[in-house]
Amino acid sequence: MSIDPNRFLADLHKLREFGASGIGKGVVRPAYSPADIAARKWLAGRMGEAGLEPHFDPVGNLFGLAPGTSLLMGSHSDSQPEGGWLDGALGVIAALEIARSSDQPISVVSFQDEEGRFGVTTGSAVWSGGLPLEQADQLTDGSGITFGAARSAMAELSKGFVEPSRFRGFIEMHIEQGPALDAAGQQIGVVSDIVGIRDMSITFEGQQNHAGTTPMHLRRDAFQALSLFNARLNDRFRNVVTPQTVWTIGRVDLHPNASSIVPGRVRFSMQWRDGDGDRLIRMEEIIRATAQQVADELSMTLSYGPMLGLEPVAMDPILRAALELGAEQVSPENWRGMPSGALHDATNVARLMPVAMLFVPSIDGISHDFAEDTTEDDLIAGLCVLEHAVRALAGRSE
Ligand code: HGY
Ligand code: MN
Ligand code: MN
To answer: Which of ligand 1's atoms lies nearest the C-alpha of 121?
Structure first.
């Protein structure tokens, strides 16, 4: 049997309906939201129809299990608060299409909370042993809901954790989420390695006060602390980072966030990523030293939330070679090997088995935005590469 591109696209568009934002093709499907759980139940049904055994684990990871030993393929189906329709979903539906059309045993997975409503790639981090369940259950989202409370919404579906030894490897197809392929006019990216990440929250606490009567030299203004921290950090990173290094302050909670009140407290997210584990450590030292210096200078109290992190990881050479073979067959000389600047579940799964990843272009490099999109030709080309790679691996294993 061979793949059915129309069935593949139809399921991709069906999945998009769960949490459709009504803006472009965007979705709002955060982990454990009603839309996420409904989408997972629909996926479980499609897995059953494909002859796979649907299996939810205690954190809401959904597997479609082939009998015996199999190749695991998939990604995640939860989204960012303002998510694209393909981020994660593409890898899950592509895996389903390969599983139901291949003569090879292929299992499918949709990991939970890859987008980190609670942690960082939380569902696969717990499954792979990278994050103890007890520790994960204490993690909270931006509104203070714990992971443990959120996952209880799926408790009655859980059949326990799946034994990783039943899988001989993991392949994840994903959109690039960056500009490289689109800018080069190339159709396929075979991932060489995935960057590492650190993510934590930092809080500066000063003195809330009246915005009209408090002289500037007497203020202990939390926003000024954040502003000085950010300016100094950008300056101090200059000699440490490379053009590929990224760092982001993506969420800022300023308290009490009122125009006539000097803010007394700011809690903000601090995230940094690089392909070099030592550079991630060096950056952490600079972050903590700069925060302490600013707190001392502005008489602020400084505190940190839990730091989560993943190390950079290289893709498996054998699985990667199968994807390269497929890429050359499907899109001759129109593909490249490349690193992943985005984080993926494959990083966690690499603790347990060989992993590899395949990219298709993101139009204008946009992702984590309702406007995220990829041409149908490129989506189908990626699926064809997976099909060739599975055949190549089968040929290799016989
Ligand atoms: O942030 C990431 O890299 C992933 O898309 N969650
Ligand atoms: Mn993703
Ligand atoms: Mn994402």
So the answer is: 6
Distance CA 333, CA 49 (A): 37
pLDDT tens column, 150-190:
999 999 999 999 999 999 999 999 999 999 999 999 999 99
Cα(261) to ligand 3 centroid in Å equals 36
Give the Å distances, CA to CA, from 176 to 214, 262, 277. Answer: 49, 42, 22
Phi-psi region of 26 (alpha: psi -120 to 50; beta: other; left: phi over 0): beta
* Radius of gyration, alpha carbons of the chain: 22
What pTM was estimated for this model as a whole?
Answer: 0.91
User: Please, are residues 90 and 75 in contact by the beta-carbon 8 Å criterion?
Assistant: yes
172 lines ligand 1 (CB under 6 A): no
Residue 398 has pLDDT above 60, yes or no: no
Percent of the chain with pLDDT over 90: 98
The rounded distance, in Å, linking the Cα atoms of 367 and 373 is 8
